[in-house]
From TrEMBL:
The gene is metE. CDD domains: CIMS_C_terminal_like, CIMS_N_terminal_like. This is 5-methyltetrahydropteroyltriglutamate--homocysteine methyltransferase. Residues 387-448 are annotated as: Disordered. L-homocysteine binds at I440, G441, S442, E493, D608. It comes from Conexibacter woesei (strain DSM 14684 / CCUG 47730 / CIP 108061 / JCM 11494 / NBRC 100937 / ID131577).
Amino acid sequence: MARSAVLGLPRIGPDRELKFALESYWAGRTGAAELQETARGLRAASWRRAQAAGLDVIPSGEFSLYDHVLDTAWALGAIPQRFGDAGRDRSELAGYFALARGTADARPLEMTKWFDTNYHYLVPELHPGQTFALDASHWLTQFHEAGALGVQTRPVVLGPFSFLLLSKGLDRPLDLLETLVPVYGQLVRELAAAGVRELQLDEPALALDRAPGELDAFERAFRALAVEAAEAGVEIALATYFAGLDTSGALERVLALGAAEVHLDLVRAPSQLEPALAALAALGGASRTRLSLGVLDGRNVWAADLDVALDRIDRATAALGSDRVTIAPSCSLLHVPYTAAREDGIDPEVRGWLAFAAEKLDELRTLHAAAGAVKRDALLAPAREAISSRRTSKHTNDPAVRERAGALSTADYDRAAPYPERRAAQRERVPLPDLPSTTIGSYPQTPEIRAKRRELRAGAIDEAAYERFLEGEIDHVVEVQERLGLDVLVHGEPERNDMVEYFGERLAGFAFSAAGWVQSYGSRCVKPPILYGDVSRPRPMTVRWWQYAQSRTAKPMKGMLTGPVTILQWSFVRDDQPRQETATQIALAIQDEVLDLERAGAFAIQVDEAALREGLPLQRAQQDEYVRWAVDSFRLTVAPARPDTQVHTHMCYSEFTEIMEHIVRLDADVISIEASRSDMDVLDAFTGAHGIEYPNEIGPGVYDIHSPRVPSPEEVERLLELAESRVGRERLWVNPDCGLKTRRWEEVLPALEAMMEAAKRRRAAA
Ligand code: GLN
Ligand code: ZN
């Protein structure tokens, strides 16, 4: 009989209980005991739900008070020196949170994206000569807790290979495997002594492009650990996810290692099933390795096509026998919300197509039952009905949208004139000084703005009062910019709580959950819009605010839009058509807004693509195709803008070297990027230093908006000089790194003053 399993469960709490418990603990309102109590309660509830769903393999140890990579570093004793005594007693929560959040004297560990998810982990810091000292209590505690509830769990541990590759501080991190593997060996022994029979070793790093030497290192490490595990009587289930091992080069090697089980993500990479079965067949009776089939999408919120999943399960069962098959979601359910059933604000038809974590457990149960059954139709009927309703619904099929997208030709992706002609037309329409200055869009989202939004939602004020309030905010923002002498103004985005949600709420094809939170990092959660249908724009979304703002000033007011790729990237996106098609639909919807802004008189229109780069597939072989359609979507969005309309884009990161040719192909008139923290080094990518020179205008950020620190005019001047020496004055704009919405006015005003003073000095310099 096949087993059912999950690699991990959501942990923030169905009502974000962990978030609130953490914040209360950090604020000193409650103590460690209360926080631990909440955490215990959340774990117990998760295990009970998993048990009630009939799961054969239930995880433990993946629950974290902040982050599972931090848990691993903490347990291994990889604690940077600047934290002093923290970690001497690893039950001390204050030390643990010091690494996560920093202290007065020690900056926290750096945070970065967990593979291609919107979850962020803390980057372990290692140094040459690094040693480790295990404290296994994280896993022991959770395993015993579950045991006390009558639940035998499979502890989840981030493997040594991925741990090292996710860390920073070492040129050759894998050299440390030799030191680290014995520590993992000790962990396995301690877990065995506590009664653990099976351990899930997560090695997601195996699914990225890997050099043969790296795989050699992995293989040596795994074999050494397997010897320890065998002696201790512990099975190792090796889990990979987010991409395919067939294309990373690791598949055959990993399957030949004799692991008790290997988990493959068959949602992201269904192509690896056949080669995996072939590889196991080639090993013959020598291999008893079970295959764990990740057939339900752990990264998205849609009810699965169970027939597709069953087909995969059947093929594996036929090849291996059912006792060597485990049925599972593709990855941990950390990346989806708790339960769709309570989302009664979502159209019931659409809600029926959703599967959050709870519904995925139901799907697993159904799959498990169906896999062993001769007569499946009755079991599968409800799921089939959801799939077919979704396929034929008018929500997913808007003929007008399809016709418009279907009629596109290559010319629809090009602006009417090449950049040099556009530049001339734009300068004629609106003369700008050397080093024109602007900002990225948002101004401080003050507590007053948030409070007003809450009042509106609660019905305490009406729409008209809210709009009057927003007009007052815009008045202020415009006044400030005029006083500072900025050249291209913005309205400040006070009406937007979020740059994607605002547009999602105004586009057809999006739904919003009430409690669909997923952890982003620590106590922070996001509630991504759910893009379920064909996308169109019923009416203008921003024109009213732009018009009001422009009416307050003679300076050009920049229109401000979010681009199609970023909307896609920060939403749960329909999986019943290629992402590229969905991106085209969004692009056309945003294009409507571009044209309406233009008709209303906008000279400059910015289309933000903050998330373009983070959408890059994990494996190089797939990246080109993605960037091609991502850039096409941007081009489509702005293509029909007149030559004398200045198209801006903004990207919040500083790694462009690898994607420069695509950035050039965006063909925005002006691009603003994050640059201050790299001391303008990012501009090397734009100067031709790596082979491609960026031909259009560029605004490298001249101060860091992520920090409350106010720069001096001299600092900004120096950065501007550096920028001029790289790209020349002709093409250079002056702006901050990103939007200002997270900052306070007390910081924004002096910082922008410094920026404008620096611009003035540079303009005066011959
Ligand atoms: N226009 C947005 C803002 O200023 C851009 C933010 C972003 O790219 N992250 O807030
Ligand atoms: Zn930004």
